[in-house]
Amino acid sequence: VFEELEAPLDPLLNRNTYVQGGVEYISLGENVIALSPKFRLYLTSSLRNPHYLPEVYNKVTVINFALTIQGLEDQLLGIVVAKERPDLQELRQSLILQGAKNVAMLKDVEDKILKTLSECKGDILEDESAIKILDDSKRISSDIVKKQEDSREIEQKIEAFRQSYRPVAVHSSTLYYCITELPNVDPMYQFSLAWFVNLYVYSIENANRTKELYRRLKYLMDAVTLNLYNNVCRSLFEKDKLLFSFILTTKIMISCNQIDQQEFKYLLSGGEKADIKLPNPDESWITAKLWEDVCRLEQLPDFAGFVESFAANQAQWRAYYDAEEPQLIKLPAPWDEKTNRFEKLIVLKTVRPDKFVLAITEFVASKMGPPYVAPPPFDISRSFEDSNCLTPLIFILSPGADPMNALLLYAEKMGFDETFQSISLGQGQGPIAQRIIERAQDEGSWVCLQNCHLAASWMPTLEYLWENMDHYNTTTSFRLWLTSYPSEQFPASILQNGIKMTNEPPTGLQQNLLRSYHSEPMNDDTFYTGCPGKDRAFSKLLFGVCFFHAVVQERRKFGPLGWNISYGFNESDFQISVLQLQLFINQYEEIPYEAITYLTGECNYGGRVTDAWDRRAIVTILEDYVNDKVVSDPNYRLSALGDCYGIPLRNEHREYLSHIANNIPNFPSPLVYGLHPNAGITRDLTASRILIDSMILTQGGTSGGSDTEVEKQVLVTVDEIYALLPNDFNIDAAKRRYPVDYSESMNTVLVQEMERFNALLGEIRSSCVNLKKGIAGLIALTPQLEAVFMAIQHRRIPASWMKKSYPSLKPVGAYVVDFRERLNFLDRWYNEGKPNVFWLSGFYFTQAFLTAAMQNYARRHRIPIDMLTYDFNVLKLQSTNQTPEDGVYVNGLFLEGARWDVAKSCLDEQLPKMLVDTMPIIHMFVSVRN
User: Fold this and answer.
1) In a domain, 910, yes or no
2) Where among 117, 135, 164 does a domain terminate?
3) What is the pLDDT of residue 911?
4) For residue 899, is it within any domain?
5) Which phi and psi (to 5°) does residue 829 adopt?
6) Taking the C-alpha atoms of 610, 616, 618 and 619 in order, what is their torsion angle to the nearest 10 degrees?
């Protein structure tokens, strides 16, 4: 069952029965059924964390059968002991059975003695049969007690041996709980306990052996950890592989008391509100946020005195701040010696958050070893070897990834290409897919159901078909392959018991190029040498197209700085482009560069591009890599950053592979992609934020400290938020003071903004009040209140607030301060009149304000509003007391990816590490559309 029980069950659950002729009856639908007094109804749910409404608890008894940590440890301990010393495990089992048998025999002896005493008529000392029974009972009892004592000694020895393997069980249970919360990151990341136990047994059987117990324990723990990492990683997207490594590392270190819980929570949430005792010592490089974060660090006991030390050693900290690779250098004295590796992570996240992901990579490698930052490559054959006819194989799709080519090639390799069947699911395809599966089960062929996410309504049928497969009705060679984008509707049981795989485009320039040269058709010698007499031109232009493909893929990682819209460029775009390149080179005497760039840039790749600026950019980028100089100039560079971006002089396939592997960096400067170096900082900051947000999702409950401590911390934050909330705006008074006016549309804007902010204010206030009541136990802690609790605990904005809020990425404390500033802006407008300069980004609904300003102009000059447009004039002022005759003055706008040169009144390149530039006041004035 799910969180809501089906309505047809209500008569049973509510005991809606009646008695007729001494028999109890119940109505179920249209049927009347006699109810047996022995009838019992049991309902089960496989939901990981169900939230049932109070009425459900009134109808049924809810019992939590979730596995406990201690229960899992004991189960895993029994498995490892049984594998290491099966004789001892068998002996232990026999002793348990013998103990139970002895207890039963002692009970029989006691019963026999009591019966003899009760049946004896006269003097028991004269009853020889009674005395004999008592003597026999005494002898039997003594024998049993002796056996029990012997058994206890053996059991103690066995238990001592079992406990020597307890570290393996504790370690492995810690590992299991590393994967239980992964579905919070992506619904496809689900693994069952049975799957984990099978992996655990496999690891025990294949771990290195030795007679030394300490080394054997280490081999076992290392084997379980590495096998879990490798098997889970093939199911994860690239962005989540380092996340999983970090989860493994921190969970293991926390279980070994190597990480302080308070510090771990601080790394994730950033601590409480900073107590700024000293002023910012140098605003030229220490931003307000950086100084606030530095001051917040002193909340941790091990960082007492950090603020004073930071202020007194600015030169050393400035060098650390400006370093290219701060994660590899020492902290300024004395903090390098005073902090451990994890605390150094906290410092780096505070001072250089853009390098946090790289620092985590170094941290994991130092604690766990290099294999944990080098996930295994996609290997379809390994996944197939781990499967059987009852194990579905699931490809989790991502933009730009299409596993069908790899699957078709593997089917051909395994001899299933002629019987392989594939169907793309969608409307009306379910029954066809069912027939194909049933036939393939019988014939032992392979079936691939593509795009399962498009057939959500048919997924229960797929789950039913899979659950009814067994070794009796399924041929051993049968395989069920599935492809799907992440979907909440995908059956959990199939995910938990299937083998999941991802096959994303590789990360990094070098890896992208290598993949292109190793994939179809580039790895086909017939294709690569398919331009006789023009090999040099073909190989060089091929390299240019490969470089172009890698660049457009990598630019996606820079967000809107790379492309205004994220496009799913994939291998098919690349393959058709290189095939056309070969065709044009062979077909024409002179290479038609214009036709090649048009087809590749405008059609093959540009066909996906919907933004005009992106289309212009993609064609311009391609022209740098596909032109006459690429062929004719031996010194031509695909990037001006160095000789490593040159083109090999020889034409052989292996020569290009060698050049890529030995010369091309995997993570070059953003300049290689045509972006400013600051774009790399933006990309890295985004990656750091995503990793931290995902890490928080995997914490499940609290991320450090007892429940009571966490509740106290949340209550303090809630009280601080509540104290900042003003009273609601008086809408009636606002309407009287600023009535609807034909000549002044801003009156309506003010009232509407007040109404919108009142709704958000009411949501925040009510959730704070109800959360305090819920923690105190005065009301039920609903799933919505739990979500608010978790969000505030991790300094995030609750989702229920965001539904009624303006967009914001701030932490909850800064969000509430910003919210209060917006309310103050409207309050000043109400009390002091229309402002001279409008805070444009302070509006809830900016479009209404812009329309009102245009409407005022249209009504004043009697011009239809659809004939008007906005023009802009950037002033050289940060504040003014004047009001423009036409249009409005606005502030609160920022530039990202560029800066405004006030002296020259024009756009200019960013300054290093200055990601955002504040715009001066802008005069937005209305003009007639040309």
Assistant:
1) yes
2) 164
3) 86
4) yes
5) -60, -45
6) 120
Contact in structure between 631 and 536 (CB atoms under 8 Å): yes
According to DSSP, residue 506 is labeled: P
Would you say 618 and 673 are in contact if contact means Cβ atoms under 8 Å apart? no
Give the CATH number, domain containing residue 759. 1.20.1270
Is 797 found in the same domain as 718?
Answer: yes
- Please give the Cα distance from 229 to 238 (Å, whole number): 13
Q: First-to-last CA distance in the chain?
A: 64
Grouped pLDDT means (10 residues each) for the chain, 930 residues: 79 84 84 87 80 78 84 91 80 75 76 71 64 72 73 76 91 94 92 93 92 92 95 92 95 93 88 79 88 90 92 93 91 92 94 93 94 88 92 90 87 91 90 94 94 92 92 93 93 92 85 88 89 91 95 91 90 92 92 94 93 94 94 91 89 91 90 91 91 87 57 89 93 94 92 96 95 88 88 90 92 91 95 93 94 92 91 87 88 90 90 87 90
Same domain, 461 and 546: no
Regarding whether 616 and 494 lie in a shared domain, the answer is no
In a domain, residue 64? The reply is no
Residue pair 195/497 in contact by the 8 Å Cβ criterion: yes
Q: Which two tokens stand for residue 787?
A: 């979500």
Q: What residues does 19 pair with on adjacent strands?
A: 24
Q: Do residues 542 and 606 both lie within one domain?
A: yes
Domain enclosing residue 16, as ranges: 7-59
Q: Is residue 674 part of a domain?
A: no
Question: What DSSP string runs through 113-176?
Answer: HHHHHHH--S-GGG-HHHHHHHHHHHHHHHHHHHHHHHHHHHHHHHHHHHHHTHHHHHHHHHHH
Mark 345-384 as b/e (b = at least 16 C-beta within 10 Å). Answer: bbbbbbbbbbbbbbbbbbbbbebbeeebbebeebebebbb
Residues 6 or more apart in contact with residue 461 via CB below 8 angstroms:
430, 434
Sheet with 421-424: strands ordered across: 421-424, 446-450, 479-484, 393-396, 499-502
Under 8 Å CB-to-CB from 676, ≥6 apart: which residues?
A: 670, 897, 909, 910
Q: Are 320 and 326 in contact, with CB atoms under 8 Å apart?
A: yes
Identify the pLDDT of residue 705.
46
Regarding whether 659 and 517 lie in a shared domain, the answer is yes
Q: What CATH number does the domain containing 525 carry?
A: 1.10.8.720
CA distances (Å), 307 to each of 119, 284, 347, 400, 813, in order? 89, 18, 12, 47, 21
Q: What pLDDT score was predicted for residue 613? A: 94
In this prediction, residue 309 carries a pLDDT of: 93
Nearest to 622 by CA among 694, 679, 548, 561: 548
Question: Do 142 and 30 share a domain, yes or no?
Answer: no
Domain boundary among 809, 834, 859: 834
Report pLDDT for 543: 94
Collapse the DSSP code of 711 into the 3-class scheme (helix H, G, I; strand E, B; otherwise coil) and give the result. helix
Is 634 found in the same domain as 555? Answer: yes
CA distance 235 to 187: 12
CA distance 618 to 3: 49
The CATH number linked to 410 is 3.40.50.300
The dihedral over CA atoms of 870, 875, 877, 878, expressed in degrees to the nearest 10, equals 40
Q: Which residue has the tokens 């600026």?
A: 613
778 shares its domain with 870: no
> Which stretches within 189-234 are classed as H helix?
193-206, 213-233
Angle at 524 between CA 520 and CA 527, to 5 degrees: 100
H-state helical runs in 805-887: 812-832, 846-861
Number of CB atoms found within 10 A of residue 659's CB: 18
Bridge partners for 855 per DSSP: none
The Cα–Cα gap between 296 and 311 comes to: 14
Lookup result for tokens 């490594």: 245
When divided into structural domains, the chain yields a total of: 6
The residues with which 896 forms a beta bridge, in sequence order, are: 916
